[in-house]
Amino acid sequence: MAKRMALMLAAVVVFVGAIAAIKARQFQAGAKQNASFKPPPEAVTTVVTRQESWPATLTLIGTVAAVRGVTVSADLAGIVASIDFESGKTVRQGDVLVQLDTRQEQAQLAAAEAQRDLTAINLERMRGLSSEGVAPRSDLDQAEASQKQAVARVGEIRATIARKTIRAPFSGVLGIRQVNLGQYLTDGAPVVPLQAVDPIYVNFSVPQQQIINLHIGAPVRATAEGAGLSASGKVTAIDSVVDSATRNLQVQATFANPDGKLRPGMFVQTSLSTGASAPVVALPASAISYAPYGDSVFIVEDMKDPKDPKGQSYRGVRQQFVKLGAGRGDQVAVVSGIKPGQEIVTSGVFKLRNGAAVQVNNTVQPGNNPAPKPEDS
Fold first, then answer.
1. 31-57: pLDDT as tens digits
2. How far apart are the first and last CA of the chain?
3. Which CATH architecture fits 102-163?
4. How far apart are CA 370 and CA 237, in angstroms?
5. Predicted TM-score (pTM) above 0.70
6. Which of 60, 222, 238, 273 could disulfide-pair with 268, CB 3.0 to 4.6 Å?
7. What superfamily does domain 46-64+194-360 belong to in CATH?
8. Sign of the CA dihedral 158, 159, 160, 165?
C-alpha cells in the first residue's frame, strides 16, 4: 500500500514538473515576442520648413475706448416733461435730449421780467429828477442798484430753465435710455450714455523691453476675434510712466471708425509694427506642442532602433524645443530651434513621443494660410 502511494506521489510530481516546464517555455517565448514587438507607425502630416521674412511686430491685447464718452445726467432735479431722443441714435452737439418741467420757473421768469421792466422805468424817472436837482443822488444810486438786481434775477431764472433742458454735450452715438416720461430725476441722475466713436481709441500695454521700438505714428492693426472686424490705425500717444507693478507702458492708438463697428469696451488683438523685417521659420499653429515647461515640435528623421540587432532604419520623430514669435493667420513664427529644410509634423503631435515611428500622409493638410478667410467671418 505504501509502495503504491509513493508511486502515485512520484507520478504527480513528474506531471506538475512537466506542466511547469511547458509554461516556463511559453512565458520565455512570449517575453521574446514582446521584446521584439514594435507598435505600428502613427499617421501624421508634415511640412518642409523654409525661411521667411516677417515684419517685426508685437501681438498685444487691447481695449477699445471712446475719444469722448459720458453718461449724460440731470443737472438739476425735476420731473421729465418730454424725451426727445431714441436709444442708439446719432445726435449732434446741442441737440435736446430731455426737457424737465419748468412751469414754476417760467412763472418766476414772468414776474422777474415785470420787476425788471418796472425798475427800468423807475430808473429813467429818477435820472430825470436827479438831473433837475429834485431827487438826491442817493435815490438815483438806489434805483440803479434795483434795476441791476432785477436784470440779474431774470438771468438767474433763465439759467435755471436752460439747465433743465438736457442737451448733448458733443456729437456721438447714444446708448440705451435710462429715464421715462414723468419720472422724477434727482441731481446727477443718469439719462443716457453718449459716446463719440469716430475716430476711436485702442489702448494697450507694451513691455518695457520694447519701449525702444515705440514711436508716434507707428502702424497698428486691431482685430476683434469672433466679430470679424479688422482695422488699421496709428500710435498717437505714449504714456510717460511705466507701471511699476507690471513693468508695462500704456500706449494709445487712434483708428478711423466711420461705420461704428468698433465699440467702446470691446476686446481686440493688436499687432504693433516695431521695426524692420526679421527672418523666421513659419509653421502651422497645429505643429506646435504647447506645454508649461516649453513649446516643442517633432522633426521627422531616419532613425535606428538600438534594440534591433539587425540595425534597420525607420522613419521616426525627434522632439525639439523651440522659441516662438508672433502669429499670423494660421501660422506661428519660430524664432529659434529649427532650421530651413527640416521636415516637421503638422498634425497628430498629441499622440507622438520621442523616437516614435510615423507614416507620412499629406493627402489632407491643416490650415497654413497667413491671411485666412473663415466662412463665418
1. 555 555 466 778 888 888 888 877 777
2. 96
3. Orthogonal Bundle (1.10)
4. 30
5. no
6. 222
7. Efflux pump adaptor protein, beta barrel domain (2.40.30.170)
8. positive
